Amino acid sequence: MNKPVVVSEETLTEPVIVDAASPALQASVAGPAYVVLAGISFSHFLNDTMQSLIASVYPILKDNYALDFAQIGLITLAFQFTASLLQPLVGHFTDKKAQPFSLAIGMSSTFFGLLLLSVAHRYTVILIAAALIGLGSAVFHPESARIARLASGGRYGFAQSVFQLGGSFGTAMGPVLAALIVVPFGQPSIAWFSTIAFLAIVVLWRIGQWYRPQIRAKKTSVAERHPDAPSSRGVTIAILVLVVLLLSKQLYVSSLSSYYIFYLIDRFGVSTQAAQLYLFVFLAANAVGAFFGGPLGDRFGRKIVIWFSIVGALPFTLALPYAGLEASAVLTVFIGLIISSTTSSIIVFAQELVPHRFGMISGVFFGVAFGVGGLGAAALGKLADHTSITFVYQVCSFLPAIGLLAVFLPKMKQNTR
């Protein structure tokens, strides 16, 4: 019989006792658990496909209920606010007591939110439905990110990118499904997507069955820090810089996700369906960039990838407000590829700085991304009402310049496995 072995597993918040033949220890030696990574990425795909429907049906809701841009922004805020507010709390709670089946249970909130949105005929009910879908996101992201790291086999950037890939492609599919299903069949057809939520519940329940044996009694030892991690004050500064970098990135992406359809319709006179397909092009490029960012961070260093992905997009964002229709499509491809590659590197960088608060850190960063997206969407909608959509994109084009703050990040050697 194998004797227990003490390991410092960064995927949990503290060192744990595991059997030498346990899946957790074997995964760290044998490499990533690809089936689990595929399952959690597929779940992320389903989750974000449903969430992206909210922004994709904005033109329908705007026409049906005579909403202005500020009210459209408030719908995004209602969705993003619940996700932003609760994600750090969920992460903090699961740091102390892991909940293997919380993902499946949380997905039920999304399920009911979609059903409610399909029958909502009052603005207040639309806001409640959006908030319910945001609640499902708050439960999903922190614990699913933990599972992705647990299944990484030490390739943390790669695992985070696989996880992000599913979400990014799910976000990209929203406009396509809206164009093919919701636009022709109307708001009630949103209820059809509740079947996706049910499928996600089944997959997440199976993942919970894999996750449950990995959980072991926690000990009092503190998780090992990265050998190149700075002092406590340096960690605080680095975390603040990473938060600001993610803010600038997410605010720009939010401006495209929420208002790009209206921008194309207003400036170039394209149809709603055509505009949704152009949005899909940007979001698909976003998904591809998100996948490659993590492995590149594992190989060349996360700070280098952060520098490139945020500042590198600046020339293209500056050109976008002045480009024609075809050139805009090309520019958004480059913007999506470059700017999205930073997400995995930022999150893994922060996790390495504060490994003993893995769930909370994941929740804070995912929550900040959602929260700023919501607040930004509301503010940009108000600005668009008083100026124009084109002016909004002229202002937002300077956001990637904030990436220059990456100079204050510490140098930390990467695992090249």
Automatic annotation (TrEMBL):
One of its GO terms (molecular function) is transmembrane transporter activity. Keywords: Membrane, Transmembrane, Transmembrane helix. Residues 36-415 form the Major facilitator superfamily (MFS) profile domain. PROSITE patterns: MFS. One of its GO terms (cellular component) is plasma membrane. InterPro entries: MFS (IPR011701), MFS_dom (IPR020846), MFS_trans_sf (IPR036259). It comes from the Bacteria. The chain crosses the membrane at residues 69-86, 98-117, 123-141, 162-183, 189-208, 235-262, 274-292, 304-323, 329-351, 358-379, 391-409. PANTHER family: FOSMIDOMYCIN RESISTANCE PROTEIN. This is MFS transporter, FSR family, fosmidomycin resistance protein. It comes from Bradyrhizobium erythrophlei.
